[in-house]
Amino acid sequence: MQKLTNSHTKEVLQYLSAEPEFNLFLIGDIEQFGMESDQVSCYTADNWQPGTVFPYFILDYRGNFLVYSHTDACNYKEIADFLQAAHFQNLSGRNERITPLLSFMEEKNVIPTYLAKLDHMAPAPADAAKPDVSKPHPVSGVRRLTEEDIPAIYDLYVQIDEFAYTYRDRPKEQVFDDIRQNVSVLGRTYGIFEGDTLLSVAQTSAENSISAMVIGVATLPAKRGCGYAKAVVTKLCQDCLQDGMKFLCLFYSNPAAGRIYRSIGFQEMGIYTMVRSR
Questions:
Q1: Is 34 helix (H, G, I), strand (E, B) or coil?
Q2: 3-state class of 12 per DSSP?
Q3: 213 forms bridges with which residues in the sheet?
Q4: Which pLDDT does position 139 carry in this prediction?
Q5: How far apart (Å, rounded) are the C-alpha atoms in residues 220 and 197?
Q6: pLDDT grade, residue 161 (50/70/90)?
Q7: Alpha-carbon distance 277 to 61, whole Å?
């Protein structure tokens, strides 16, 4: 496997631009960290020569690997052997490129999700529901969160099974640092409070010159169905587009979540598959 350097950045970004939605994380990581840093390492086949088309591209962000190729004729066994030797924690990419790797791997936890894209906001219906503000501790408006809100973000996520598995068994300081990355380094975080309790949250990650990925959308179980998640995601997307982004993407697997996202303006692009090591 050939390790790439910053001198290859222009060629790589041109290669990835063929499908910017599916390569949003790749583009964001490269723009943020470069191609050779403590955070990111990048690879392709040993026989690739500058000036020719990459047979495939692999990015490692702190043990989280992303794989992309223009073609299904790439050497999947070579890629799978490399990933397993690297003891990857997570692997992700377009379903058509990840699924062929699985036959060369030991059993893994495979999670297919829909990838959806928004490039303009859907018109709000005239009878759109608004969050209930009649509580003894009135619900605040949606706002951008800061590092001071990190404990509240953590307290919400540990109550959500989808997120808690990554948080409960790790030192809180380490988790706080991960949250901080999306609050003030890799993206932005928006939320809505009731008193001191964060009810719903949404973040971006991999923000780059043209786009961002919406991640970490969560609402307290007892507060679901009140329109909080839609309000938070809507405000987040509005601000990102106003800041000059051309589009945003997100993943979902829950049909109910899909209906909410489509009502905001997201449209499905295809299947994006994530693989977790057991």
A1: coil
A2: helix
A3: 205, 249
A4: 64
A5: 10
A6: confident
A7: 15
Q: Which of these, 257, 207, 254, lies nearest to 232 by C-alpha position?
A: 257
| pLDDT > 70? residue 119 | yes
Residue 84 carries which side chain, given as an amino acid letter? Q
Q: How confident is the model at residue 162 (pLDDT cuts 50, 70, 90)?
A: confident
Residues 6+ apart with CB under 8 A from 104: 76, 77, 80, 81
Task: Determine how β-strand 40-44 pairs with β-strand 247-252.
Answer: unpaired
Of the chain, the percentage scoring pLDDT greater than 90 comes to 68
**Run of H or E including 214:** strand 211-219
CA 233 – CA 86 distance, rounded (Å): 35
At which residue do the structure tokens 């699985």 appear? 102
Tell whether the model's pLDDT for residue 130 goes beyond 60.
no
Cβ-contact 247, 119 below 8 angstroms: yes
Q: How far, in Å, are 84, 135, 166, 189 from residue 218 at the CA level?
A: 32, 21, 14, 12
Query: CA of 265: how far to CAs of 16, 116, 233, 256, in Å?
Result: 25, 9, 11, 15
Structure tokens, 206:
């991999």
Distance CA 204, CA 34 (A): 19
SS (H, E, C) 153-202: HHHHHCCCHHHHHHHCCCCHHHHHHHHHHHHHCCCCEEEEEECCEEEEEE
Can you tell me the distance from the alpha carbon of 175 to that of 154, in angstroms, rounded to the nearest whole number? 8
